[in-house]
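In the previous chapter we treated chains in isolation. Here, by contrast, the input contains two separate entities that must be folded as one system, with a combined length of 227 residues.
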Amino acid sequence: GQNIDQPTEMTATEGAIVQINCTYQTSGFNGLFWYQQHAGEAPTFLSYNVLDGLEEKGRFSSFLSRSKGYSYLLLKELQMKDSASYLCAVRANAGGTSYGKLTFGQGTILTVHP
Amino acid sequence: NAGVMQNPRHLVRRRGQEARLRCSPMKGHSHVYWYRQLPEEGLKFMVYLQKENIIDESGMPKERFSAEFPKEGPSILRIQQVVRGDSAAYFCASSPNRNQPQHFGDGTRLSIL
């Protein structure tokens, strides 16, 4: 099975930097994904990591350590529109029938204040 | 380039009726995934399909729920004899292959009266 943990809520100030952590325990691993979801809308793909290290995409970066079962999403130069839920998801190992599906954490609700 | 299209956006059914949810994947995507999101809960995997084949249905209840992805046309998630507990947002996602990130549609919000 898979277990994914992330903080329930976080708050930050406009213009600041925030780091959202995600820890996971899985029977197999083949990728960690981050999505953004505004209330009542579809999850939007942000980034993913398969290998250890940092992936940077504009104001968003994601880091992965497979040995520690740990990832974080870093958001820089926060804007009010970044207020949303951030979902961490893990994909299972290749080769099995479960490969392909994503297992999601509960999501972290980020509120950005002026 | 159209994204994943789901319809209807909102669906209201009475207990005991059938609900049919449709999903057209992004152009060039042949892998489709259905997820359910209950109020105040995370997204839960239901079923993974590739054209005409069910690859993984481990997250789908054995009773009343079925899914298909025919050679022509959209993927359909069908819920028979709906109950109040089926009220949720149902999201469809697609990818060109199972290695690539999944992209989600806007979802169908199902309400059971």
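The first strand of chain B starts at residue 5 and ends at 7. The mean pLDDT of chain B is 94. Compare these points with the single-chain example from earlier in the chapter.
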